[in-house]
Amino acid sequence: MPRVRLETDFTSFKHEIVTATAKIKKASKSGMTLAVLKLMDDCLTVPPTCPRKTGSLAASHSAFVNGQLVGTSEGVEHVGGTGATPLMHLVKISTKLEGAVVAHKPYAAAQHEGVAGRYRVEKYSHPELNPGPKWMYAKLVMFGEKYFTYIADSIRALK
User: Fold this and answer.
1) For the chain, what percent of residues have pLDDT higher than 90?
2) Among 3, 46, 94, 145, which is most exposed with the fewest C-beta within 10 angstroms?
3) Euclidean distance between the first and final Cα of the chain, in Å?
4) Within 10 Å of residue 29's Cβ, how many Cβ atoms?
5) Are 95 and 67 in contact, with CB atoms under 8 Å apart?
6) pLDDT above 70: percentage of residues in the chain
7) What is the rounded CA–CA span in Å between residue 37 and residue 139?
8) Cα torsion 30, 36, 40, 41: sign
9) What is the rounded average pLDDT of the residues 109-136?
10) 71 vs 118: CA distance, rounded Å
11) 3-class state of residue 29 by DSSP
């Protein structure tokens, strides 16, 4: 019976896997950037929106991908208050892809949760924007799947 000998070189396959992995990571980061920027915009424009009195809280949102700043809301109209104070640095806490939107005011958590602690919970009136507590969380519940779609679509576009 004849013997069959098979030799295979997987070098090019390994190189293609490394290349594909790098492309997927880059596309995922690009999709995450779109997602966090859309989340930040939704927090400011889709009810319940960020509460506004002077507008400085609305002008103090920041969007991050992997700890890097990708956008701020400091261009949102604001008068008085402490002014726009978007967060400019955020520590990356994982080796995984991370996206974050931060409202950077000392009283932001009290306003978001609607629970007074050190800061009093204000009842801001801006009827056309319908502001209220949970302005960030509500968007994740309402549009979470849409935000993930930004990432998936960026990866699909690699074909």
Assistant:
1) 56
2) 3
3) 45
4) 18
5) no
6) 91
7) 12
8) positive
9) 71
10) 29
11) helix
Q: At what angle do helices 11-45 and 137-156 cross, to 10 degrees?
A: 150
Residue pair 47/132 in contact (Cβ under 8 Å)? The answer is yes
Beta strands in 3-159 (DSSP E): 61-65, 68-72, 99-103
Whether residue 85 contacts residue 57, with contact meaning beta carbons closer than 8 Å, is answered with no
What is the torsion angle, in degrees rounded to the nearest 10, for the CA atoms of residue 108, residue 81, residue 87 and residue 121? 0
Q: Are 139 and 102 in contact (CB under 8 A)?
A: no
Structure tokens at 54: 């002077």
**SS3 category, 159:** coil
Q: Scan for tokens 């013997």, then name that residue.
A: 3
Q: Select from 97, 33, 53 the least CA-distant residue to 41.
A: 33
pLDDT tens per residue across span 33-48: 999 999 999 999 999 9
Alpha helices in the chain (DSSP H): 11-45, 108-113, 137-156
- At 27 the three-state DSSP class reads helix
The CA angle 106-109-111, to the nearest 5 degrees, is 100
